[in-house]
Amino acid sequence: MKEKVIIKKIYLSLGLVSIFILPFAFGVSVSRINIYAYGTVGSRSTQNQSVQSRVYSLIHNQNYNSNEAIVVYKNGSSINKIHGSTGSGSSGSGLTGSQSSVINVNNSVAIVKRPQNESYKNFLTGLEETSNVKSVTPNYIRSFSTLPNNVDINYQKNLFMINAPVVSNSGFTPSLGGSSNIIVAVLDSGVAYTNYTNPLTGTVYGQAPSLANLNIVDPYNALAVYNNQTVNEYNPYDSVGHGTYVTGVIASSTNNDASGSTLYGTAGIAFNSTIMPVKIGNSQGVPVSAEIMGIQWAIDHHANIINLSIESMTPSSAEETEIEDAINNGISVVASSGNESSSSLAYPAGYPGVIAVGASNSQNLLTSYSNYGCSNLGNCQTLVAPVGYNTPLVYQQTYTGYDTNNVTSYTSFSNEYLVGTSFSAPQAVAAIALYDAKYGVQNPQSINLLFKESSTRLQGGINNTYGYGLLNINAMLQIQNSGEEYNILGQNGEVYTFGAGSYYGDLTTVQGTIPSRTPITAITTPDKKGYYILTSDGGVYTFGDARFYGSIYNIPNAPVKTPIAMATTPSGNGYYILTADGGVYTFGDAVFQGSLYNIPQSAVPDRTPVAFALTPSGNGYYIVTSNGAVYTFGNAQFQGSVFNIPNAPVKTTVTFALTTNGYYLVTKDGAVYTFGNAQFYGSMYNIPGQPSDVPVGFEINSNNNGYYILTNNGAVYTFGNAQFYGSTYNIETPQFLF
Fold first, then answer.
1. What is the pLDDT of residue 316?
2. Are residues 432 and 527 in the same domain?
3. Residues 514, 518, 524, 525, CA torsion sign
4. Domain total of the chain
5. How far apart are CA 650 and CA 665, in angstroms?
6. Pairing, β 183-188 against β 305-308
7. Which domain holds residue 422?
8. pLDDT value of residue 126
9. Which candidate, 84, 51, 53, places its Cα nearest to that of 69?
10. Does residue 634 lie within any of the structural domains?
């Protein structure tokens, strides 16, 4: 049994999820919502300050574009519809000028140009005070997290220090480099993966020899689109050299020749991975506006991992919104911690859910320049990777002269020694790519746990200086993720995912008026790629790839519409719904086998159903009532019930779960009863000093060698080999475990 564990933050929603809302079957756009658990952790004080104080801070920080702002607005409304798109307007009037003054990034974010003859302060104030605007921030300029250094080393020592398979395994095989099925979006200064001539300037950009064999997908130049240079939209040429170097850390060719020729010369950690090169900056820096356009591109084109080797110490709500979107779409976002020697993380590493990677040296100590600690938004150092300083540890290819800030040609390449947290982040990215290639794509929460379990502990153990410790890729690859997961449905319709579970949306993300937002139960699809939520009025809401086949809400003459439980058919092409009067309703390919409603009153001592379960074949099902009785229909086999146990302390049954040739019943006092070949692993009833918690959910783990019990205060108890991944204890009153 594991102790109750408090999780500090839960992130919900983002993206556009098509769901069916009753009584109408139509797609609905789901908007972004942040749910912060409690207290000051994750508070948005920097975004709640007044426009006046924000503008005052700008006077002391000129690293932003004074001719535009980034607007995050509500409810997916068009920014042009909110503010109007014609007319000159007056000072402080919000969006003014022509329609070309606005670049719509997506349904929630827009870049707004400042009208001529309007002060920047009035411009921001007008936008902030306009209806349907959630937040307004200046278009800050990020910098690349690089510190040029030309001290030579002979080898890529970092690869040995992090136990990268490419150097730590005996015998080189292509499988050591991961898989082309894993897509890594490198949002940077571009990537020199091909020869290209900029038609606007005539500048020739060459292909880096070490990237000649790179797997490329969906290249994009967000900076060009932001600058209205769409002729370069799909050509993210590298005008700096930084992005080429970062990409090399992840995936440079690994057919090194014995002579050490600069034609190759370096090894990428996950060299078989597919790179999505996205240009978001140049020698002038990275406009946050271009960055968020790049993040949206990565989301829309199904990247698995995003690398952000950029930084500044100023947060942006628009940037945070897009990063939350990426994380909640299952993308692991990795960022460099920053190079200010600060005890606070830079941004975007400082946003909750981002994997923040600092830089260590050859003695496994934090480098003198690396940031550490936590950000004002509560995200803390996740881990460190070796980069070094006086003794550089990372050796990759980029433009000749980049290490001395003297690039004279974009067609001349050499191997350079560079330092900075820019090159710690891609090492962690490569580790994720290797793990995803071996075990399947993991959600960001699972990746965080893997880093925690596998990193080599440094001074002081787990702390905010080193995070979980030093990246150890081989150790990480030895931890087999069973794919185990469990989800908790909150009392307001929130969905909390744990383990390998994926989030697809919930009732809190549904916009507009819906008949009922009171959840009753939820269930995943057979392929675990979606789920259903049932509401108290019989409505069925679908998320992910769950398909809508009908609901009790749509049945005009249903005696009782309150659902109690639901089960999907093995094919996933239908489902059953059990109602409070014992009725069983079938939808799609579900086959009716009978119900309590059809049994004469005298034959059923208690007609209050509490649980429903379908047999594995789908040709039968069980209905359990509150007095512990079990009723079988179709080919379901009766194995016993709490109702038949004369000395059971409490017979009030709260939940039921089916296993191979057996089943479990859980009673209100926390006791677990096994029938057939179901194995007993413990119960709350057997815990010394038995807690007063009341069970509200029971779930068998994926390996069928343990189980979970969810209690009314959100605590999750594990038994057998079930692994604890988190709970909503003291955060959210749970409704159901699924």
1. 93
2. no
3. negative
4. 3
5. 12
6. parallel
7. 145-196+240-279+303-315+331-476
8. 82
9. 51
10. yes
Strand bridging mode 706-711 / 695-700: antiparallel
- CA-based radius of gyration for the chain: 28
pLDDT recorded at residue 584: 93
620: helix, coil or strand? strand
* DSSP letter (8 states) at residue 442: P
Phi, psi of 123, rounded to the nearest 5 degrees: -60, -50
| DSSP H or E run through 388 | none
**What is the Cα 249 distance to its own chain's centre?**
23
> Is the separation of the CB atoms in 60 and 309 below 8 Å?
no
In a domain, 691, yes or no: yes
Please indicate, yes or no, whether residues 421 and 337 belong to a single structural domain of this protein. yes
Contact 700, 707 (CB under 8 A): yes
Classify residue 426 as exposed, middle or buried by CB count within 10 Å of its CB (0-12, 13-18, 19+).
Answer: buried
**What's the CATH code of the domain at 558?**
2.130.10.10
Q: Which residues of 473-508 are buried (b: 16+ CB within 10 A; e: fewer)?
A: beebbeeebeebbbbbbbeebbbbbbbbbbbbbbbb
Question: Tokens 């952000």 sit at which residue?
Answer: 308
- 158's tokens: 């970092």
Scanning the structure block, which residue is given the tokens 């007063």?
692
> Which secondary structure element, helix H or strand E, spans residue 496, and what is its range?
strand 495-499
Q: Which tokens is 335 given?
A: 């960022």
pLDDT of residue 213: 87
Give the mean pLDDT per block of 10 residues along the chain (738 residues).
24 22 21 19 24 26 70 60 34 38 76 83 80 81 57 64 78 76 96 97 95 93 94 96 97 64 71 96 93 95 96 93 89 96 96 96 96 93 96 92 92 92 97 92 84 91 94 90 78 82 80 81 86 92 90 87 90 91 92 88 81 89 92 93 88 89 91 93 80 86 86 89 80 82
Helices 425-439/242-251 angle, 10° precision = 40
* Lookup result for tokens 């409690």: 38
Residue 483 within any structural domain of the chain: no
- Tell me which amino acid residue 521 is: T
* Contact (Cβ atoms closer than 8 angstroms) between residue 594 and residue 570: no
Q: Round to whole Å and give the CA distance between 35 and 248.
A: 37
> What pTM, to 2 d.p., does this model score?
0.60
Measured in whole angstroms, the distance separating CA 43 from the mean position of its chain's CA atoms is 19
Place of tokens 């918690």: 693
With tokens 């007993």, the residue in question is 680
Q: Between 317-328 and 288-300, two packed helices, what is the crossing angle to 10 degrees?
A: 10
Q: What is the pLDDT of residue 22?
A: 23
Task: Tokens for 79, please give them.
Answer: 């920014």
Q: Are residues 710 and 576 in the same domain?
A: yes
Residue carrying structure tokens 């009785």: 629
Phi/psi zone of residue 218: left (φ > 0), alpha (ψ -120 to 50 degrees), beta?
A: left
Q: Answer whether 552's CB lies under 8 Å from 535's CB.
A: no
